[in-house]
Amino acid sequence: MRFITAGESHGPVLTTIIEGLPAGMPLNINEINEALAKRQEGYGRGNRMKIETDKVEVTSGVRHGKTLGSPVTFSVVNKDYKNWQSVMSAEPIEEELSKKSRVVHRPRPGHADLVGGIKYHHKDLRNVLERSSARETTMRVAIGAVASQLLSALGVEVVAYVCELGGIKGQVDVSEMSLAEIRDRANQSPVKMVDAEKEQQVKDKIDETKKAGNTLGGVVEVIAEGLPIGLGSYTQWDKKIDARLAKAMVSINAFKGVEFGDGFEVGRRYGSEVMDEIAYNAELGFYRLSNHLGGIEGGMTNGMPVIVRGVKKPIPTLYRPLQSVDIYSKEEYQASIERSDTTAVPAASIIAQAVVATELTQAILEKFPNDSFDELQQAVANYREYSKNPDMWLEEE
Ligand SMILES: Cc1cc2nc3c(=O)[nH]c(=O)nc-3n(C[C@H](O)[C@H](O)[C@H](O)COP(=O)(O)O)c2cc1C
Ligand SMILES: C=C(O[C@@H]1CC(C(=O)O)=C[C@@H](OP(=O)(O)O)[C@H]1O)C(=O)O
């Protein structure tokens, strides 16, 4: 399965084409729209989210509620486009530049503005920010919602929540909770945290930060349970599932780092405290007595839950803008103020869940035959049986 996304933040529509989904897979459009709505929620976002009500229009690849095996196309309308039509329209750039007022010419530190302008030779930095905007992640969440439906039908569930926001850490041990409990708790929380006790403290911090014209980042965690053993491969560097998941996570705007399982902490421990010892019983097959390594060994899923965390830096656009340089006058200036979020960590948890679900789905579709959904389901079921049964695995030819 592969996909491409297109669309500017204030252009008419966002689009994606997803190719390589099995035929005959039921697709619930309401569930896709629910995921899009969740991405829009979250305490600390700016006014843009009050304008948009993201909903997909399906324009190919689905008939009578099921995939056809042909490319699936989604689009989402940017309602804000009507307010930006004249800015986004084709007035000659010279005219705009002479007025300057509607041209972005004071690049924001931490955003793509300056480097994008130099690299693509754009005279108006709006041409950069329109596509570097995290508005693009709408489509990644739509794709992730399709992936989640495929995974769910194969017995794989993926959830995400915010573990830390603005330096305030949730204290609840989620390893004691079921995925359904984690999902319900995060869904109810305005900051998508599992720890209800910390919620008010986080909201207060967001309010204070907003008042001070500043912004906040945080950490999100994604957990995937029920994965078949052996997704990804040790045989080549770019096939390793941890490498692929790390790339997917860091591809989310403003994500700066990734950890698996106990994460960077493993570098401070003895080997005996980090390796997950192996056990076997007929019901479970091979399993581990712990999950310090977050369900991945040798670039492959090992059957334990995959646990991946990503860190998101604070939003670059500050209402108390940082120093910048006007690209025309070369004078020191305050960076441009675009309408902006104070924090988008809650939204980022939904996006992280989506990109992880997408990457795991791609790995499943690479491993198992999947022209039709029935074929895929049968192949995964057979392999699950095989992988937990040493007699099937080790029997003589
Ligand atoms: C959901 C979400 C919302 C964001 N909202 C804003 C925003 O309102 N203002 C802003 O300057 N950056 C925002 N960002 C971050 C920028 O998109 C990001 O910092 C920028 O594209 C530069 O990329 P980099 O931080 O990965 O280097 C947001 C990111 C995400 C994931
Ligand atoms: C539009 C979204 O997020 C946007 C991401 C973003 C950025 O610079 O990344 C800047 C802001 O855009 P605007 O200036 O239009 O308010 C955010 O609102 C979205 O998440 O759907």
From TrEMBL:
Chain's role: This reaction introduces a second double bond into the aromatic ring system.
Entry's cofactor comment: Reduced FMN (FMNH(2)).
One GO process term, biological-process aspect: chorismate biosynthetic process
Binding site for NADP(+): 39, 45
Family from the record: Belongs to the chorismate synthase family.
Reactions this protein catalyses: 5-O-(1-carboxyvinyl)-3-phosphoshikimate = chorismate + phosphate
EC id: 4.2.3.5
Known partners and oligomeric status: Homotetramer.
UniProt GO MF annotations: chorismate synthase activity; FMN binding
Keyword NADP in annotation: yes
NCBIfam families, per database record: aroC, PRK05382.1
Residue numbers binding FMN: 131-133, 253-254, 298, 313-317, 339
Descriptive protein name: Chorismate synthase
Protein keywords: Amino-acid biosynthesis, Aromatic amino acid biosynthesis, FAD, Flavoprotein, FMN, Lyase, NADP
Enzyme superclass (EC): lyase
Cofactor(s) the protein requires to work: FMNH2
Cellular component GO terms, alphabetical: cytosol
Pathway info: Metabolic intermediate biosynthesis; chorismate biosynthesis; chorismate from D-erythrose 4-phosphate and phosphoenolpyruvate: step 7/7
